[in-house]
Write a structure and sequence with these properties.
There is one protein chain. By secondary structure, the chain is mostly helical. It has one domain. It contains 9 helices and no strands. The protein is globular.
Length: 146
């Protein structure tokens, strides 16, 4: 399981939140961590638009790979995926108050360099982003066990 120090080390070496979450989930999904991180590399910082948190998009990728349908007629899989996705969202919002980067970061947009710097200097990467990555990974593990 990923810890907050590993997450922060990842952030400051170019591994964003979505990459960390999907990369951590990859171990149990039949793909390697590097491939998972590459797939998730465009989704950090709210897809670089401070939208949906990268922790959430990384989790969505993992949920889709595990529970998603890939062929016509797999209708029962769609319902299961939607159930898991909704439960992930419920638990994440319960812990973090939102699914959106800017709301989680007190209105700061990590896609804007000056606001990113403010977030880093204000300890938000350590106080919000790193724990949110760990929470997303933890929630995914919980959902997998259910």
């Amino acid at each position: 399981m990923v810890d907050e120090k590993q997450v922060l080390d990842g952030f400051f070496s170019g591994i964003c939140c979505s990459m960390l979450v999907f990369g951590e989930a990859a171990h149990g999904l039949g793909i390697d961590e590097v491939t998972a991180r590459k797939i998730a590399s465009c989704f950090g910082s709210g897809m670089e638009h401070a939208g949906l948190c990268g922790c959430v998009t990384g989790a969505y990728m993992a949920l889709g790979l595990k529970y998603g349908n890939g062929a016509p007629g797999e209708v029962e899989k769609i319902a299961r995926l939607k159930e898991k996705k909704a439960e992930f969202e419920r638990r994440f919002v319960e812990r973090w108050g939102s699914l959106e980067c800017t709301k989680m970061l007190g209105g700061l947009d990590p896609a804007v360099p000056k606001e990113l710097q403010t977030a880093v200097e204000g300890g938000l990467f350590a106080g919000v982003c790193a724990p949110a990555v760990c929470s997303a990974c933890e929630i995914l593990k919980e959902l997998e066990a259910e």
